[in-house]
Amino acid sequence: MSDRTNPGTSLRQLLLAVGEPLLEPVAGSLDARVRGVGIFDPDDDLGSYPGEVVLVVGARGREAVRSVRAAARAGAVAAVVKPDSRLDDVRAAAEDSGIALLTVGPNMRWDQLQTLLREVLDAAAAATSDTDGGDLFALAQTVAVLTGGSVTIEDAGNRVLAYSRSDDEIDELRRLSILGWEGPEQYLSLLREWGVYQRLRSSEEVVRVEERPELGIRRRLAVGIRAGTQHLGTIWVQEGAQPFAERAESALLGAARLAAVRLLRRRSPSVRPREDLVAGLLEGRISADLVAGQLGLDPAAPAVVLAVAPREVERDRPAHELHQLEATNIVSVHATSFRRTALVGTLGSRVYAVLPEVRTSPVPLGRQVVAALHRAGLRAQAGLGSAVPTLAEVVTSRSEADRVLDAMARTPDRDLATIADLRGEILLDETLTLIEANPQLRDPAVAALVAHDADHGTELVPSLLAYLDALGDVRAAANGLHIHPNTLRHRIRRAVAVGGLHLDDPRERLFCHLQLLLVTR
C-alpha cells in the first residue's frame, strides 16, 4: 500500500525513470501523483489503492476490464496490464473510469516490475522533497541515450539523486551505489586516492576513470556539477558493452550545466520557474530585463532561437508528453553544452532554445540536436531564426524559426534549415496566404481557367504554370510535362483565350503566376 504522507512523483516522471518500451502509456493522463505500487487483488472487496500504480496480475480479456474498473474505484491512479487481443476493451474501460492504463511486455516478470517501480518511488521520496527529482531521473536517462552508458547523478556528499535504467551489465560500484543511495566508502577512498574527486571539484573538464578489472570497476566518464566555484555534485557515466558515443563528453558537459540549474532551483523554490520565464520571453509576455535579471544574462547581448518540432504530433497524449519531455532534455543538454547560458522551453508541441551571445545561426548545433533526436527514436525537424541584436528581440528570431518549421513541414525530406535557406519560399508562401485570405485579391481570369479544366477535363492551369515557372522557355516546360512543345504552345494560346490574359504585360504575368501557384498548392 502507499505511504499517504509521501508526496510521490508524477506518473510521467515515473515512466521516464523506468523507461519505454518497458512500460507503454495507452490511456489516461500522466499528471497524476503516484505514491505507491501494489498487486491488484480482484477478490479483495475491501482493497484500497489510493495514489497507487496497480499491477493487474493474471487478468486477461473481460477479467482485465473488470479489474481496471475496480482498481479505479479503489483509488488507483494507473493500472498495468499485459496486452492481448482485448486491449481495446481494456483501454475503453480505463478511459471511462478515469484511470491511466499502461502495458508491459509479456516477458517482464511482475515481481521484477514491482521492485523496479518501488525503487524509483523510493528514490523520488528520498532525494526529492522538492519537485525536481523526477527531472533529474529524466536527465539521467537522456544522458544515457546521448553517451551510450549508464548514468548516476550524485550530490556533493556522494549521495545518489537519480540514475538511468540500464540494459547492460553494471559493475559493482554502480550496483552498490544505487542499492545504498550513496557511493560505497571503499570505492570512494580509491577515487580520492587516484585524485578523481580533486579534479572534479577543481575544473569543468570531463574526467576519465580507466577500467580496473581487478577491482570490478569499468571505464567511466565523470563531470562535476558546478555553480561558479561551488561544487554541487557529480554525473557519472559507466561504459557498457559498447564504447561511449562519439560526442559523449560534450553531452556530459551540457548535462552538468543543466543539472546545476535544477539543483540550485531546489535551494530557491520561491524563484519564478525558469520554464515560465523562457516561455514568457519567447511569447513577448515577460520583459527581457526581468528574465536577464533573474537568470544572470546580459539583456544587450545578441541571441538566436533554435526551434524543434516533431514530424508528426502523436494523437495519443500520454505518449506525446513523454516524447516531448525527452526531446526537451536532449535539446537542453546540447544547447547548454554549446552555450552555458542557453535557455530552453516549450510552447505547444515545439521545443525552443534561446542562445545568448550568438551572432550567426549555429547550424552545427542544429545538426547535432537533430541527429541526437533521431538516435533516440524521435523524428523531428529543426529551424533556426536569424541573430537578433538584443535579448528583447528574440520574439523576432523565434517567429522566423517557426516560419522555417512551417515551411519544412511541406518538405519532409529536410530536417534542418535556417531562415536564410528558405526565405524566398517562406515569403512566397506568406504572400499566397495573404492573397487567399483576401477575396478582393483573387483574379477572375485564373478562376476561369480552373473552371474550364474542371468542366472540360483540360490541363490549362498546370500547363500555364509550367510555362511561367520556366520563364517562357517552351521546350523546358514541355519536357517537364512530358508533352510535345507544340502541344504546350496550343495550351498556352487556349489559356490566354479562355482567361482573357495579357502575358506580354509583366505585371499581369507576375500576378497570374502568383494566382496559379495559389490554386495549385
Task: Please outline the helices and strands.
Elements: E1 9-10, H1 11-18, E2 23-27, E3 33-34, E4 36-39, E5 52-55, H2 61-73, E6 78-81, H3 87-97, E7 100-104, H4 110-127, H5 133-147, E8 149-155, E9 160-163, H6 172-180, H7 185-193, H8 196-202, E10 207-209, E11 220-227, E12 230-239, H9 248-267, H10 274-283, H11 288-295, E13 303-310, H12 317-338, E14 343-347, E15 350-356, H13 363-375, E16 380-384, H14 394-408, E17 416-418, H15 419-437, H16 444-456, H17 460-469, H18 474-481, H19 485-499, H20 506-520
Parallel strand pairs: 4-5, 5-6, 6-7, 16-17
Antiparallel strand pairs: 1-3, 2-7, 8-9, 8-12, 10-11, 11-12, 13-15, 13-16, 14-15
Helix pairs in contact: 1-5, 2-3, 5-9, 5-12, 9-12, 12-13, 14-15, 15-20, 17-18, 17-19, 17-20, 18-19
What's the level 1 CATH class of the largest domain?
Answer: Alpha Beta
How many domains is the backbone divided into? 4
How much beta, percentage-wise? Answer: 15-25%
Radius of gyration: 29 Å
| CATH-defined superfamily of the largest domain | Reverse transcriptase/Diguanylate cyclase domain
Task: Quickly give the structural class.
Answer: alpha+beta
List keywords for this structure.
Transcriptional regulator, PucR_C-HTH_sf, Alpha-Beta Plaits, globular, 521 residues, disordered N terminus, Beta-Lactamase, Udp-n-acetylmuramoylalanyl-d-glutamate--2,6- Diaminopimelate Ligase, Chain: A, domain 1, CdaR_GGDEF, alpha+beta, 4 domains, CdaR-like_regulators, 5-stranded antiparallel beta sheet, single chain, 5-stranded mixed beta sheet
